[in-house]
Every structure is written in structure tokens, then in C-alpha cells.
Amino acid sequence: MHNYQHIEMSAVLPKSALKAFKKSQLLRSRDLESLGIWRASLGELVKRGAISRIRRGLYTLPDAEITENHTLAEIGKRVPNGIICLLSALRFHGLTTQQPYEVWIALDGKAREPHVDQLTLKVIRSSGEALAAGCDEHLIEGVVVKIYRPAKTVVDCFKFRNKIGLDVALEALREAWRGKRCTMDEIMHYARICRMENVMRPYLESLT
Q1: Is residue 46 within 8 Å of residue 53, measured between CB atoms?
Q2: Exposed/middle/buried for 138, CB within 10 Å: 0-12, 13-18, 19+?
Q3: CA torsion 56→60→63→69, rounded to 10°?
């Protein structure tokens, strides 16, 4: 039996929970439970306006500022081992006119298939250096989110062109080059890692 202290429904959130929400705008039910708030209490706290339910198992404060990258923050909280990639990474970096309704994430080939309520995930599988290289951590709404750098994202677009279309990959390359978001050396570095040198070389030569 848990030794959590039951929160009176009429009470405000404890200081520990408020402090946690200030650090990260999104908390899972298990996070709140570790702070002494029973899962059975969450519905009443939502009803009383103490917290807001984003979707099942995920909560925030009612006055929390929701950013344009809120969905990525949700993924960072729910799938912390996932890396935002392809169309979602392009959108984050401003390198595409596409507005994907799915969230694209990269996972290790052996990782369990994630399921996030009310969000559609498109998962690509990778491993080793091809998975780990070019991954940066961004703080979005207080949540650490892993996102591939522009150069790695462009290379991945060519690697997975059968999934997103060659036209999208070419647009990403042009936008990254014109916007000076990455150098040719950076692109070639990740192209070598992902074994895309021969595929990308003609398109890179057309830029210079």
C-alpha cells in the first residue's frame, strides 16, 4: 500500500506539485502520484480547476502557456527515448511548408512501439551512430525534447525519401542551404554516417 498523503479535494495543489509544474509544464499522472497526489484525486482536481488534463495521463496548470511546439513537448514527456525527426524536425527548424498532422520520431530498432492517446505517431527505426548522431536536446515548455539537427534531418529525408517523398527532401535541402542552417561539411558528415553519400552527391553538387 502506498504511503502517499491523500489530498483533500477542496485544497489547492501542494507546494511540491506547484514547484514541479514550474520546472516542467507537463506532468504525467505517475509524476503527480510520486508527489503525493493519488490518481483517484486527479479527476476532482481537474473539475475544481486546480489542474488541466491535456490527454489521458498528462496534466498541466490551467494558466500554462501553450506554445506552437506543445505537441513535441508531449512526445518528449511520453516517449523520452524518441527523437523528433523528418517532417516534424523540418517543421521545428522552419525548413518545410509541410504541416504534418503526425509526429515523426526515430526509435531504436529494438524499442517497444509507443502508443500515445489522441496523437498519431510515425515511427522510423534506426540503430547505432545513425540513430544517435546529430541529436540535440531542446527545452520546450520545461520538457527536454530530443530533435535532430538541420543537417541530420536533411540527410534523413533522403534516407527515408520513400516514406516522405523526394520532393520534400529536395525542398528541405534547398531551404537549409539558402537559410545557411548547415554547411556542406555537416551534411556530408551525416551522409557518410547514414550511407547516403552517393545518393545525395548529385543534389549537393547542384547547389555549389
Answers
A1: yes
A2: middle
A3: -90
How many CB atoms are closer than 10 A to CB 78? 20
Nearby residues of 193 by Cβ (< 8 Å), 6 or more positions away: 129, 130, 133, 155
In this prediction, residue 46 carries a pLDDT of: 85
Helix (H, G, I), strand (E, B) or coil at 136: strand
Q: Which residues, in sequence order, are CB contacts of 203 under 8 Å at separation 6+?
A: 158, 170, 173
pLDDT tens digits, 42-83: 888 888 888 888 877 788 888 877 778 888 998 998 899 999
pLDDT in tens, 155-195: 999 999 999 999 999 999 999 999 999 999 999 999 999 99
Kind and range of the H or E run holding 143: strand 143-148
Degrees, nearest 5: CA angle 23-25-27: 95
Which cell numbers in the block locate residue 14? Answer: 501542494
Distances from the Cα of 126 to the Cαs of 25, 26, 148, in angstroms?
A: 30, 28, 13
User: Is pTM, for the whole model, over 0.70?
Assistant: yes
Q: What distance lies between CA 32 and its chain's CA centroid?
A: 22
Counting every residue written for the chain, the total comes to 208
CA dist 30 → 8, 41, 49, 78 (Å)? 18, 12, 20, 11
